[in-house]
Amino acid sequence: MTDTQRVNIGKQHPAPYKTLIALSSQVEEAAAAAGLDPLLVELLRIRTSQINGCAFCLRMHTGDAIKKGENPDRIAVLPAWEETGYFSETDRAALRLTEAITRVPDGHVSDEEYNAAAAVLTADQISAVAWLATVMNAFNRVAITSRYPVGG
Length: 152
Fold this sequence. Notes:
mainly alpha, 0% strand
């Protein structure tokens, strides 16, 4: 961290920020309509924020997940989800796709990653996961750029 004062871009231009919040609500509704568990939705948000290093979003969505009843053990092992037995086939497919979308600069979403998700998830679920990752990546960039404060 530096001492550089940052513009809070959400406050500087509130209309686009409110649009992002509205989009997030629509995406959450689409995820529910596609049959994605609300706990999985929070885990996808957390995983995206872990990859991007967004402390503000990590704190917020970890708290949201716990309030919704998520097992703290699943949150604790989320960075190593592939090595655990905590996650269902659907969880794993959604996490894999979310990671690929978040890491687009590392090689885009490969056919292998997409096909692995498509073997488990419905078209509606794939779309919802992609939108969740897209919106969460946007929120991460807003919070990181603006240096939203976290902790003491």
